[in-house]
Structure formats: C-alpha cells, structure tokens
Amino acid sequence: MTYPFPVSDPIPLPAPVWLFKILNIVTLGLHFVALEILIGGLLIVAILNYFGTRQGARLELNQSASLMARRLPIVMTYVINLGVPPLLFTQVLYGQALYTSSVLIGLWWISVIAILMLTYWLLYKVAEKTETNQSAWHLAIGSWLLIGLIARIYSTNFTLMLRPEDWQSLYENSALGAALPMSDPTTTPRWIMMLTGGFAVAGIWMVWLSTTSKTSETVGAYLNGLGGKIAAAFFALQLGAAYWVFLAQPDAVKEQLTSQSLYLIAGYGWIAITVALIAISVLAIVRKPSLLLSWGGAVAVLLSMLSMVLYRDGIRDITLLTKGFDVWERNVVTNWSVVVIFLVLFVVGLGIIGWLLSVVMRSKEEQEMTLNPSFATESTKKEMTK
Ligand code: HEM
C-alpha cells in the first residue's frame, strides 16, 4: 500500500539528520520540563488556593500557592520559547507529514495562539490574586482546562502526522480543519502520559522550590512534604500511563521498540529514572528540605524527559517507516560553515537563557521579600535590614 505523503522539498537538508535529531531531542526535552511544571503546577495552585482561602486555613497553603503562581508566567515564557526550536527541527525533518496533519486540523492548530494568549492572561491574574490572598482557584482551573485543550491539540497533531491512511477521509470530513480526530488509539494515552507527568514534575518542582526560593521554613517544609507526596503518587501513575502508550502502538511498532537497542536503553532508562524519582520523592516526604534532594530531583527530571523524548522519537520513526517514510533517507548537503555558526549561536543562546533564568529568579526573590517579608528566612531578613 502507498501512503499519500507529499513529495519532499527539492532543496536538500543543510545539516545531517543526526544533528537535527540531537537538537530536536535536547530542545524538546527542555520544552517538556517547562510544560510539565506548568500543567501540574497550575492545578496544584488552584487546589492550594481553594483550601488556603477558606476561613481558618493554615497560612502556608496560600503562601505556597502564591509562591508557585508568581513563577508560572515565567514558566510559560519558557514553555513557548523552548517549544519554537523543536517545532522548527521537527518541521525540517518531518515536514511532509507534519505540515499535512497541521493543515488537516488547521482551525484547531491556529486557535492554539488565541488559547495561549488567554491562558497567559489568566496566569497573570492568578498570580496577582494569590499574592493578596484572594480567591483565584476558578481562574486557575479555567486556565488549566485551556492548557489541557492545547495539550490535546498537540497530542492529536503529533499522532495524526503518523497516520497518513486517515488524511483523505479527514479532509473530506472537514476541509476547514475543524474536525479533531478522536479515533486514533494512541492519542489519548499520550495525552494522559503528559498530564500525569505534569503533576509528578510539579511535585519535584515544589521540592526544588523548598530550598532554592528564599521562603520561610514553614512554607519550605510544607512545599517539600506535599511536593514529595504528589510526585511519588504521580510518578507511579505515570509508569502505568507509559505502559498504556506502549500497548496502544501497532504490533509492528511494538516489535521494533523491543528489539532495537537504542529504544530499549531509552525505555528501560526512563523506567529506572522514574523509580529513582519515586525514591527521591519518598525521601522528601520523610526528611527536611535538602539541597541534595532538590537538585537530585531536578537533574533526574531532566534526564527522564530526555529519555522519554528519545523513546517518543523512536515511536515516530518506526511508525513512519512502516508506512514507507524513512527520515534517514532525506537528501542532505551539509553546509558546515553555517552549521558551525549555528551551533556557536545555539550554545550562546542557551547560556543567555540560563543567565536570564538566574536573574529572574533573584529578582523574584527580592520582590517576594519586599512584598511579603513573612516569607523570608531569618538569614534573608538580616540581609534585607543591612
Ligand atoms: C501551554 C502551551 C503548550 C502546551 C500545553 C503544549 C503541549 C504539548 C504536548 C502535550 C506535547 C506532546 C504531544 C504528544 O506527542 O503527544 C507537545 C509537543 C510539542 N510542543 Fe508543545 N505545548 C505548548 C506550547 C508550545 C509552543 C508555543 C510550541 C512552539 C511554538 C510548542 C512546540 C511543541 C513541539 C515542537 C512539540 C513536539 C515536537 C516533536 O514531536 O518533535 N509547544 N506540546
């Protein structure tokens, strides 16, 4: 059977396929870290704010909600900026499939921009309201539902690009791109995998915030303990979601995933890191906040995302190969001088992002201490009075 992939662009790729793949995997891994913090962090903020604004509620509930909510607009900046590079690399490598699926759900795909802007605005509102101890949980839930919808649109597009057999009927169904296909058995498990991962990663984010933000000891201990509990529960659930993703794949894909060593390493590596993350979360529950656990958790989350993205890349390549599309057969004519300039700028860009992140974090802490001195630890209070 032949599948309706459009003919490839006559202009060859300007760099080797492996280089585009490495860049794609690294930047997508970073996009996923920010994305998971946003997805889980926002709903946790909603729940903490709901209970924290009830009469007689413990003070640290809304203080934790506020501390997290104020960082979410920044997290969103990283979700977006770290989403752009993998989108470019994916389009370069898989444009024939991805452009087609994007056009076929065009109305939904383009609506992401409007939904994103609304979500962003809501995030600022939530941050503003939690700061003054006002009820903001309904806005946070509204924003979270919109984020869940964007995630659904993404999961749909990145699975539809693997199903050329559905393209014709989908176009006949809605040439406007208004139909969102629901029949693909792999879409929902992938979406659920991202949503459960959101709570797990946000739990580790709370553990990380317990030592890296200059908050009071009570709020730090609360974030550490609650973050540990959420992370332990949701990493365990995510193991189940990952198995569901695997089971939903066609037999030919499953067979290749379990026989190619790269994907075996990525798959088992991801399971091992997830088990380590559960152990870190349990330690956070039973111990006081510690830098070792905070940073150990952060590094493990990054490694977990990278191995997940590698495995996900395997699902895509193998599925497309079963349909006659081999990404490794793309015509390549490497322009090394451009590649070197690009790589230098890429590394400089990553360095600048890291530096910006550290500046923003420091300014947030100062802002927090000025706005609400009760958040500050004893040592930072002394620093402020100097
Ligand atoms: C709140 C906003 C966003 C949400 C909730 C979101 C969600 C997601 C999800 C759930 C996936 C995985 C889909 C799957 O494979 O099942 C994904 C992948 C991806 N996202 Fe985002 N995303 C957001 C913003 C963005 C933005 C603004 C961009 C780029 C401009 C972007 C670029 C990408 C790319 C390129 C991939 C996959 C790349 C690949 O398959 O190689 N995302 N996103």
Helix content: over 70%
* Major β-sheet annotation: none
What is the number of independent domains?
1
Q: Quick check: average pLDDT?
A: 93
| Count of beta strands | 0
Report how far the terminal alpha carbons are from each other.
Answer: 76 Å
Element-by-element helix/strand order: HHHHHHHHHHHHHH
Proportion of beta-strand residues? under 5%
Poorly predicted ranges: none
Radius of gyration of CA atoms, rounded to a whole number: 22 Å
SS-based class: mainly alpha
Quickly count the helices. Answer: 14
Shape: globular
Bound heterogens, unique: protoporphyrin IX containing FE
Please summarize what this structure is:
With 386 residues, the protein is mainly alpha-helical. The chain has helices spanning 17-52, 59-69, 72-81, 84-104, 106-131, 137-160, 164-173, 187-212, 217-248, 251-257, 261-286, 291-322, 336-371, 378-385.
